[in-house]
Amino acid sequence: MTQSPYKRILLKLSGEALMGGQGHGIDLAVIEKIASEIKEIYDNNIEIAIVIGGGNIFRGLSAAATGMERASADYMGMLATVLNALALQNILENKGVVTRVQSAIEMRELAETYIRRRAVRHLEKKRVVIFAAGTGNPYFTTDTAAALRAMEIGAEVIMKATKVDGVYSADPVKDPSAVKYDRLTYLEVLQKDLKVMDATAISLCKDNNLPIIVFNMNVPGNIKRIVSGESLGTLVSGR
Fold first, then answer.
1. Under DSSP, is residue 209 helix (H, G, I), strand (E, B) or coil?
2. Are 167 and 181 in contact (CB under 8 A)?
3. Count of other CB atoms within 10 angstroms of residue 111
4. How far, in Å, CA of 157 to CA of 151, rounded?
5. Which of these, 81, 83, 114, lies nearest to 100 by C-alpha position?
6. In what helix (H) or strand (E) does residue 60 lie, and over which residues does it extend?
7. Burial bucket for residue 136 (CB in 10 Å: 0-12, 13-18, 19+)
8. By the number of CB atoms within 10 A of the CB, which of 53, 165, 183, 218 ranks highest?
9. What is the phi/psi pair of residue 8, to 5°?
10. pLDDT tens readout for residues 66-111
11. By C-alpha distance, which of 14, 8, 21, 74 is closest to 47?
12. Which CATH superfamily is domain 8-237 in?
């Protein structure tokens, strides 16, 4: 791999990405592929943090829409992210990737409690750190958790893995006339109401000038291409 422009990255994985073609749950074959891609850049001394969603198991927002108390639904969604984090950790470590799971909700038998300085030290020691349970607070998405953790650990970029090859003007699956953007500013994302990340996450990235790269996780080798400096997907930045 060529010299990477990044030393430390934060990879944002949605829970939906882990269920593959299934309607719900965890597809271990999909996690195996993701873990193999992570290992490839891990072996090239990239410091990797991961924030993982839980939508493949439970979506707090959807449950709240059907009458469940929003805070309780969100806490259940946080627990779902822990399940995903433990599954990914297991497969990464089977590949020889030293991994730590840090949870924003204390559960000492399963994961470390999130401590920023400890997370940074893990990264410096070339351990992959998976952040679970979002921010630990209801009403905040895992997108916001990704932006927050990326800034706390000093990541140079957020790599947001999706099912499409970037950000479009509309859903490309439903609208064949949708136009793909190669570059966007934070303000354009907010003004056009593009579903890159939620508005809180975008605003946090804007305030701290943290770039976001949105890319297709289903294309093998895309993570390596991005950390090698290849222009891929959609870049969201200050200009």
1. coil
2. yes
3. 22
4. 9
5. 114
6. helix 60-65
7. middle
8. 53
9. -135, 125
10. 778 989 989 999 999 999 999 999 999 999 999 999 999 999 999 9
11. 8
12. Acetylglutamate kinase-like (3.40.1160.10)
Beta bridge partners of 102: 112, 131
Give residue limits of the domains in the chain. 8-237
Task: Count Cβ atoms below 10 Å from residue 125 Cβ, excluding itself.
Answer: 10
Residue 103 exposure: Cα atoms within 13 Å on the Cβ side: 21
Residue 80, both tokens: 């779902």
And the tokens for 168? 């479009």
Strand blocks (E) in the chain: 8-13, 47-52, 99-103, 112-113, 128-132, 157-162, 167-168, 180-181, 183-185, 212-216, 234-237
Q: If phi over 0 gives left and psi between -120 and 50 gives alpha, with beta otherwise, what is residue 97?
A: beta
Instruction: Tell me the C-alpha distance between 17 and 114, whole Å.
Output: 24
pLDDT tens-digit series, residues 184-206: 999 999 999 998 999 999 999 99
pLDDT (0 to 100) of residue 139: 93
- Cβ(182)–Cβ(31) below 8 Å: no
Contact 30, 68 (CB under 8 A): no
pLDDT digits (tens, 9 = 90+) for 119-139: 999 999 999 999 999 999 999
Between helix 142-153 and helix 116-124 the angle, nearest 10°, is 70
pLDDT at residue number 4: 84
CA distances to 1, 181, 203 from 239, in Å: 28, 13, 14
- Interior angle at CA 98, CA 59 and CA 103, nearest 5: 35
And the tokens for 159? 């790599």
Tokens read off for 210: 């943290």
